[in-house]
TrEMBL record:
It is found in: Cytoplasm. Residues 144-377 form the Radical SAM core domain. This is tRNA-2-methylthio-N(6)-dimethylallyladenosine synthase. [4Fe-4S] cluster 2 binds at C158, C162, C165. One of its GO terms (molecular function) is tRNA-2-methylthio-N(6)-dimethylallyladenosine(37) synthase activity. One of its GO terms (cellular component) is cytosol. Catalyzes the methylthiolation of N6-(dimethylallyl)adenosine (i(6)A), leading to the formation of 2-methylthio-N6-(dimethylallyl)adenosine (ms(2)i(6)A) at position 37 in tRNAs that read codons beginning with uridine.
Length: 438
């Protein structure tokens, strides 16, 4: 028997890329590839890229540059680029980096076997189409599993066209996977020890998949998943404020398996900027929405993304963003300096000076860090559920995630990865909590 070929995958960017990398490993597994963590051993290196900000896509070119000596030493090495940079800049990648053999966009991963055959014949393989067929119908069952918590992509793409964002171009139009397939995939995960599933989608709360009796929304899908014995926790990300339907908000109040954490990016607190961003909601509408969510689930932790230095952002606009953050009080937030992306409407507009954007980013990060600490501090003394994901560095120590998605360290020598336990929080460190098993 031939030695199995070795595949090294590097994943950049979002959780959906993490999921996609696992699925690509399975597709190529069926073609005789086993994964390796050692790049130098690989027969194929696959870079699964992110195009959301300029910095993210630049990483691809520097990593490809670093692969040159390896390719020179191993001429049979195949180098592939997948993900959103492949989708957006496929031709440019091939022109700038002749060492690349394969370019595959996010909607074409099921076609990898044919592409690999083409490489074996000595050619290059490129596929950045948006095929009509559902790639997931053509991919093998899931095999790669790391721990008791898994991702499940339920929806891909986005129709919102925020003025700064490449996702509608790189991931294409919104497509929801059918209910039955998701239930099957979820049951298979649970059969193999998964106890927590995070439903993924660029616009996950816009989910509307074909199910019994017609289209199902995300709330109905969550409620059906919650009936799976052995599945203890459900999360979903990322949501758009305008798609937070009443039944989904209600599920946060009455579905115990739906965890009390919600990532609900608002991007800016200025109505003028929200309008320029094509977000189609005001700050006041966001406040009302947060009130309704908290009425349903008072202890829910909210998180958001913020962009500073969007074209035209004035000091007053930025002050509105800071005010929104203070008013809402987030449990965690992610902040980014605006990055002009070719092909998006905002890229045509004059940028805010870099020093101004840098200063605003610093101010905003200080505020969200303080809020994150405060939210953690507020957990001290409380009893929470913790799902153990791995062992800690100290003897007998376990590390897991709380219901509110905090990392928690617990000394619990008898425990095993995958145990879901009750813990009393005793202390808060900068990026984690310490607790005692009850
Ligand atoms: N510049 C800066 N940040 C961006 N994001 C998306 N596009 C851009 C851009 N062009 C941020 C948004 C989004 C997160 C995933 O990345 O905040 O919610
Ligand atoms: Fe991008 Fe999210 Fe806006 Fe869609 S909703 S365009 S993914 S920022």
């Amino acid at each position: 028997m031939a030695e199995p070929k070795k595949l090294f995958i590097k994943t950049y960017g979002c959780q959906m890329n993490v999921y996609d990398s696992e699925r690509m490993a399975e597709v190529l597994g069926a073609e005789g590839y086993v994964t390796t963590d050692v790049q130098e051993e690989a027969d194929m290196v696959l870079l699964n890229t992110c195009h959301i900000r300029e910095k993210a896509s630049e990483k691809l070119y520097s990593d490809l540059g670093r692969l040159k000596p390896l390719k020179a030493a191993k001429p049979d090495l195949k180098i592939g680029v997948a993900g959103c940079v492949a989708q957006a800049e496929g031709d440019e990648i091939l022109r700038r980096m002749p060492l690349v053999d394969l370019v595959v966009g996010p909607q074409s991963y099921h076609r990898l076997p044919g592409m690999v055959d083409k490489l074996a014949q000595g050619g290059k393989a490129v596929d950045t189409e948006f095929p009509a067929e559902d790639k997931f119908n053509h991919m093998p069952e899931r095999k790669v599993l790391r721990g008791p918590s898994a991702f499940l992509t339920v929806q891909e793409g986005c129709d919102k066209f925020c003025a700064f964002c490449v996702v509608p171009y790189t991931r294409g139009a919104e497509v929801s996977r059918p209910v039955e397939r998701l239930l099957r995939e979820a049951r298979a995960l649970v059969d193999r020890g998964v106890r927590e599933i995070t439903l993924l989608g660029q616009n996950v709360n816009a989910y509307h998949g074909a199910g019994a009796g017609g289209d199902w929304g995300l709330a109905r899908l969550v409620r059906e998943l919650a009936r799976i014995d052995g599945l203890e926790r459900i999360r979903y990300t990322t949501s758009h404020p305008n798609d937070m339907e009443d039944d989904l908000i209600a599920a946060h109040g009455d579905e115990p398996k739906l965890m009390p954490y919600l990532h609900l990016p608002v991007q800016s607190g200025s109505d003028r900027i929200l309008k320029a961003m094509n977000r189609k909601h005001t700050r006041e509408q966001y406040f009302r929405l947060v009130e309704r969510i908290r009425a349903a689930r008072p202890d829910i932790l909210l998180s958001s993304d913020f962009i500073v230095g969007f074209p035209g952002e004035s000091d007053a606009d930025f002050a509105d963003t800071m005010d929104l953050i203070r008013t809402v009080g987030f449990g965690a937030s992610f902040s980014f300096k605006y990055s002009a992306r070719p092909g998006t409407p905002a890229a045509e507009k004059a940028p805010v000076p870099a020093e101004v954007a840098d200063a605003r980013l610093q101010d905003l990060q200080a505020l969200i860090t303080a809020q994150q600490r405060a939210a953690q501090e507020a957990m001290v003394g409380r009893e929470v559920g913790v799902l153990y994901e791995k062992t800690g560095r100290l003897p007998g120590q376990m590390v897991g995630k709380s219901d509110h998605l905090h990392a928690v360290h617990v000394t619990d020598p008898e425990a095993r990865v995958g145990d879901l336990v009750r813990v009393r929080i005793k202390a808060s460190a900068p990026n984690s909590l310490a607790g005692e098993r009850l």
